[in-house]
Amino acid sequence: MRVLSVVSELHPLIKTGGLADVAGGLPPALARQGIEVHSLLPAYPPVVARIGAGEAVHRWPEFYGGPAALRRLAAEGHQLFLLDAPHLFDRPGRPYSDEAGHDFPDNWRRFAALSRAGADIARGLVTDFRPDLVHAHDWQAALTPAFIHYDNTPVPTVLTIHNLAFQGQFDAAIFPSLGLPEAAFSIHGVEYYGGVGFLKAGLKLATAITTVSPTYADEIRTPEGGMGLEGLLSDRVDVLHGIVNGIDTEAWNPATDPYLAARFSVDDLAPRAVNRRAVEERFGLVPDAGPIFTVLSRLTWQKGMDVLVATVDHLVSLGGRLAVLGSGDPLFEHELRLAAAAHPGRVGTIIGYDEEIAHLLQGGADAILIPSRFEPCGLTQLYGLRYGTVPVVARTGGLADTVIDANVAAMTAGVATGLMFAPVDVSHLRKVIRRAVNLYHQPGCWTSIRRQGMKADVSWDRSAAEYAALFRELVSAR
Ligand code: ADP
């Protein structure tokens, strides 16, 4: 089976968030399931600088405001099509924003073009690559299923939601420039509250929809989690699937990780103490017998950082220590710096984005706190599981699907991998921290949770098997 993946970022070529990790991690895992994936993404300057532009397989004299070419190449383990449209993508800045961080005003045109190119490939633009199925990701690629639908191309489409908070909503005035038939401006197509909704259109017209965890798939059908799209998603519940993301288990392997002070495995946990000592040094924590909690996160309201800030004193009073690595909202950055100043030797804060310290924290902390208000999938709990940093998480989205709470039944059965709490407020976060500290001081229990987590399958292979089953079902139903 051949699949075209249409996506606006792909790790390691270009990344702004978890979407890139999925776009980069899934194709090699699908290949192991016998599914050949080609990925279409924009020819952003850093991508071309890294891997070259490839060979032109098609040229459009005029494509959304200028000439464009479709280029093809294989690089870094991926089969790629690059949409080379200099008037849309050859500019400084990030994939969606300029150097000052402002969204590009023509993002609608840029990603309508990407989606149109995907639909063109679906209907045979490249003679020797006709996909059996098209997989589009997030609002940036969400018009692909719409174009394919209105073209009457007989290829099933899957749209994956990585975060429903980003919907690609624009003024109705752009509609005539999208290249869709007039009939598409309706409640059955792209029309959304009087404007144009890219994600809305894709959710309406894709053959099937997936999101990145089963619990998030439930939550987005409620008024609290649906962000205005709960009605549409509820109507399509029969084709809505939740598939948890995997992680790159080679880059994140405690037995080989070059960023760790000492490498370890589930059968040899002793070297972990060396990493713990390195965390203490790095974050200015005084050594003692209590647990080290870490927070490794964007510092935002979604991630529950206001609740964390209000819980720090309690965590310290219970004998815990806290190592924070993150950046984001300046208010939370400031408050977490203040918390470190108020608790010298007990709380350490590093503001910034640092891959190396992130690995060290996962390899040396005892528990990772994730008090997110919503979390489509979440990755840091998966790294925590793999590295024996016990996840202490809110019961939401992918956190609820990937961690087994250490309740009495799970402890008796020996299957617990972390601790879970709800709702996200100060009293419940305090309570779960108290539970964690108590369990930590029962070394048999803590080691059992830690080992069980390290044995959990967090690889892409498990996820890819689910995507492959869905893809096969859709192709054979056609
Ligand atoms: P989200 O995509 O919502 O930010 P995820 O848990 O899905 O949350 O993914 C976050 C990713 O970013 C993880 O790989 C995590 O290790 C990484 N990360 C977050 N903050 C930092 C930081 N300050 N330094 C290094 N890595 C970070």
Provide an overview of this structure.
The protein has 478 residues and is α/β, with parallel strands linked by helices. The protein has 2 domains: 2-246 and 461-477, Rossmann fold, CATH 3.40.50; 272-455, Rossmann fold. The protein has 20 helices and 18 strands. The protein has helices spanning 18-31, 45-51, 86-89, 107-122, 138-141, 143-151, 198-205, 214-219, 230-235, 272-283, 305-309, 312-317, 330-342, 355-364, 380-387, 397-402, 408-413, 426-440, 443-455, 460-477, and strands spanning 2-6, 36-42, 55-60, 68-75, 78-84, 133-137, 157-161, 169-170, 191-192, 195-197, 208-211, 240-242, 292-299, 321-328, 347-351, 367-370, 390-394, 419-421. Helix 6 crosses helix 7 (198-205). The model has no long low-confidence stretch (mean pLDDT 97). Adenosine-5'-diphosphate is lined by residues 17-18, 296-298, 325-327, 353-355, 358, 378-380.
Distinct small-molecule ligands in the complex: adenosine-5'-diphosphate
Look up the CATH topology of the largest domain: Rossmann fold
Strand line-up across the major sheet: 3-4-5-2-1-6-7-11-12
- Distance, first to last CA: 14 Å
Query: In percent terms, what proportion of residues is strand?
Result: 15-25%
